[in-house]
């Protein structure tokens, strides 16, 4: 039985992403713990949601810090895409969950993370890796949207977790044009 807050958050994030109205009882049941254990760790749903947001924001910071390192942009993009789930969760939960949006610190951190993502995309554009004919904000939003789609498809069993980074990279670098795919 999971009783560690980190493990419970790991389980709760996809549950809430699929069912935003999930009660504490539903979250506990689906996470495989008792409601009492969940409430001991997170006294209210708002505490749980805010802890989830904190975890997601911390994970995004960690991934971006690695991608911002002084390494070739191709390697940095590979590192960013390889660890895409926090960006999916940011897009899926932090921007839309009312309990998070009501916390100015979380909203401010989310905006900072998105700004850093845009700056990373601009770095890729400057290096000639990413298209310059599209705004960096659009490409950063596209990355987050692709991450969210890949994460959801992986959770639902429609895609393997090892496929997702390759698919995200292919769309980011080549779009959906047939001439870049295996078949025409």
Domain module count: 2
Percentage of β-strand residues: under 5%
Distance between the termini: 50 Å
- pLDDT under 50 segments (min length 5)? none
Taken from the alpha-carbon principal axes, the silhouette is elongated
Quote the average pLDDT: 88
CATH topology of the largest domain, by name, is: Tetracycline Repressor, domain 2
Pick out its properties:
single chain; 184 residues; mainly alpha; Arc Repressor Mutant, subunit A; Tetracycline Repressor, domain 2; 2 domains; 71% helix; 0% strand; DNA-binding transcription factor activity; Tet_transcr_reg_TetR-rel_C_sf; transcription cis-regulatory region binding; transcription regulation; transcription
């Amino acid at each position: 039985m999971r009783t560690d807050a980190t493990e419970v958050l790991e389980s709760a994030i996809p549950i809430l992403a699929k069912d935003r109205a999930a009660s504490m009882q539903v979250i506990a049941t689906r996470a495989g713990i008792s409601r009492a254990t969940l409430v001991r760790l997170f006294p209210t749903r708002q505490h749980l949601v805010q802890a989830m947001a904190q975890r997601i924001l911390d994970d995004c910071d960690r991934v971006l810090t690695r991608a911002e390192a002084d390494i070739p942009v191709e390697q940095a993009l590979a590192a960013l895409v390889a660890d895409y789930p926090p960006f999916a969760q940011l897009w899926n939960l932090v921007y839309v969950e009312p309990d998070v949006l009501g916390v100015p610190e979380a909203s401010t951190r989310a905006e900072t993370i998105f700004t850093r993502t845009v700056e990373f995309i601009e770095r890729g554009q400057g290096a000639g890796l990413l298209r310059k004919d599209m705004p960096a904000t659009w490409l950063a939003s596209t990355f987050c949207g692709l991450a969210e789609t890949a994460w959801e498809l992986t959770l639902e069993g429609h895609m393997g977790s090892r496929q997702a980074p390759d698919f995200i990279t292919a769309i980011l670098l080549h779009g959906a044009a047939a001439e870049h795919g295996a078949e025409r």
